[in-house]
Design brief:
This protein is mainly alpha-helical and 185 residues long. The protein has one domain: de novo design (two linked rop proteins). It is 77% helix and 0% strand. The chain is built from six helices and no strands. Helix 1 packs antiparallel against helix 2, helix 1 packs antiparallel against helix 5 and helix 2 runs antiparallel to helix 3. The longest helix is centred in the first third of the chain and has 57 residues. The chain is rod-shaped and about 90 Å long.
Length: 185
């Protein structure tokens, strides 16, 4: 009888541990999704600001067609991105294109003095800061999830229920790591 109670107690502990690890994996997966949703909200905000910025800049930058087209193409790439890794890559491209746009704008004093441009630039700067914080939170949440999925004993349960490591939001293009160069002609 005592052996049976010990075995039953051991079974309860093992099942409890199993349920706890599984529930923590589900919780972490949901935190990753929620963190991505927060990044997505800020990326959408930036995405919506860009047409107004482009219209303001077009009137001043007649000779910067390549820069304007790069921003337009990067924005279009976001619309076509389906998966989170594809979206991360497209968003990084847009960040780089916007950096080049603001660097080129330094050569246009009238543009820099435009109240509409200054307002949009401030709004985009604020949004970029929010995106940066949301990315940091997302990456921290991804790290927690990946640790749980890859470390023993969580990896056993993760493998049984097909939990996969998540993708970090990181700069993939080496050119994006460099500060934009400002040239005055």
């Amino acid at each position: 009888m005592i052996v049976l109670l010990i075995l039953l107690g051991l079974l309860v502990v093992i099942v409890g541990w199993f349920v706890g690890v599984y529930n923590s994996l589900v919780g972490l997966r949901n935190q990753v999704k929620e963190a991505w949703a927060q990044v997505d909200v800020q990326l959408k905000r930036r995405f919506d600001l860009i047409p107004n910025l482009m219209e303001t800049v077009k009137g001043y930058m007649h000779h910067e067609r390549e820069t304007l087209e790069a921003v337009t193409q990067a924005r279009a790439a976001i619309s076509g991105a389906g998966s989170i890794p594809d979206r991360i890559k497209a968003e990084s491209g847009l960040s780089a294109a916007l950096g080049r746009l603001f660097a080129v704008s330094e050569a246009y004093p009238d543009l820099k003095a435009s109240q509409n441009f200054l307002s949009l630039q401030e709004e985009l700067t604020s949004t970029e800061n929010k995106i940066s914080f949301a990315r940091q939170f997302y990456n921290q949440t991804v790290m927690n999830m990946n640790n749980k999925v890859q470390m023993f004993p969580g990896n056993i349960i993760a493998g049984m229920f097909n939990f996969q490591p998540e993708t970090y939001f990181e700069v993939t293009e080496e050119a994006e790591r460099e500060a934009p160069k400002v040239k005055f002609d």
